[in-house]
Amino acid sequence: MPCKAIHWLIPGFFVLNKSHMGNNSPLCYDFKMDNPLSPSALTFSTDLTCVEFIGKKVIELLQGLATTDVRNLQQDDVRPTLFCQHQGKVFAIGYLLMRQTDVIWLLTPPAHAKQILTRLVPHCQLARVKMHPRSVRCEAQHSKVAASDGSYSAKSTTNQVTFNLDAQTKVTVEDIDDTDHTPFPSPQWYNWQIQAQIPVLDEHNLLQFTPNQLNLVPSSWVSLKKGCYCGQEIIARTHHLGKVKRVLTRYQINSSAMPPVPSGTILTFTATGQKIIVLATVNTTQVSWLQAVGPKLSESQDWLDLVNTDNSQQSIRVRDCQHTSHHVSAENQNVDTRA
């Protein structure tokens, strides 16, 4: 299996190694579809776990907490959503899935689930809604052929739900509640999120950014038309005033040999002193990607140097290409910041 050639180095950095695949083995993945995938549909694991909410007032509860509008949620409907504290800082990101009229699942990474299970306890108690973790297995499948139905459309059986993330990627959720399961996500999952410009937030980066800084306002993740929810005032005011100093950025690295950059690492532009915070790095045999939150760069910028604040030996050269897509050239050398 191609996934045997994948090695998890450190949090926030993943590398694909072809040494175990043989000379004639196909590339493990390429989400830009520049190279052929084999087989035509590639299945890979995700980091999604499940928190189950049960109660007659579950819709009312989540309507006042989630950033998406859940009032018209129907059975097997899926809604991408965020959960924020009162200052608008994101502590969880995931997908709400209605299993029954009074049962809703939140599919979210483990660190996010931990925040949910702690922070929402008093809200659930007031609404008389039960909340607990539920064991599921979530796998994604990326296909060359685009699906005819839209994003987040779902199909379900008794123990399984499948929904589309986009035209070519779907997630299958298998209910295994009587079984212990710890998700071990594939680099392909993080790569898909980076290409889709969905923030990859681990425990180091939760409670650090607002949805505005993550480029999710407006979007299907955040409703500007629903009523009040936790953090809504700050999120809406920031959007209407247009005062966002930091934004989610996607950098393309032209060297697959780039040294690991863990999530939470702060990189500094040597020319201006502006800083970016690394969210995730994915490295493949073809191209590497870096996702970070940082200042908006002019599209006319020339090449700029970044230096690791904690390791001056590590430098990265970047330039803005278009919108939130960036090219990055990685080097490992001494940097003279006096110029």
Question: Any overview of this molecule?
Answer:
- There is one protein chain.
- The protein is mainly beta.
- It has a domain at 39-199: Gyrase A, domain 2.
- The protein is built from 5 helices and 19 strands.
- It has helices at residues 58-63, 110-119, 121-127, 187-195, 232-241; strands spanning 6-10, 13-16, 41-45, 49-54, 78-84, 90-100, 103-108, 130-134, 136-143, 154-156, 160-164, 169-175, 246-253, 266-269, 275-283, 288-295, 304-308, 311-322, 325-332.
- The strands form 3 sheets. Strands 13-16-15-14-17-18-19 form a 7-stranded mixed β-barrel. It has a 5-stranded antiparallel sheet with strand order 3-9-12-11-10, with no helix packed on it.
- A hairpin with a 2-residue loop joins strand 1 and strand 2.
- The chain is globular and about 55 Å long.
- Residues 1-39 and 321-339 have low confidence and may be disordered.
Give the strand tally. Answer: 19
Distance between the termini: 49 Å
Strand order of the largest sheet: 13-16-15-14-17-18-19
Judging from the principal axes of the Cα atoms, what is the shape? globular
Full CATH superfamily name of one domain: Probable tRNA modification gtpase trme, domain 1
**Overall residue-averaged pLDDT value:** 78
Q: Under the CATH scheme, which class of one domain?
A: Alpha Beta
**Unreliable stretches, pLDDT < 50, 5 or more residues?**
1-39, 321-339
- Structural class comes to mainly beta
CATH fold group of one domain = Gyrase A, domain 2
Radius of gyration from CA coordinates:
20 Å
Helix content: 10-25%
Explain briefly what this protein structure is.
The protein has 339 residues and is mainly beta. Helix content is 12%, strand content 37%.
